[in-house]
Amino acid sequence: MKPPHLGLALLVVVLWTLSFLAVKLGLRDVPPLALSTARLILTSLPWVLILPRPPVALHKLAQYGICMFALQLGLLATGIHLGVPAGLAAVLLQ
After folding, report:
1. What is the pTM of this model?
2. What is the end-to-end Cα distance of the chain in Å, rounded?
């Protein structure tokens, strides 16, 4: 791997790790599902405003969003809130 590519790969690893730590810290003050909702809205809203909607039925797009993001983030935050360490949560999510 070329050094710039290796640097980008390491940056992804660091950002991925920091997101789990941010969830753990955020759960000190915010309930799990509220934190997941805020995280989903804050990360998806810019893309909704910039990118065109895919050429699929709206109900299928909503089903995909709920299954892939709302449930995933909600269960992740709930698990961390119930005591799963952030590192183990990252492994379980993968």
Report:
1. 0.73
2. 23
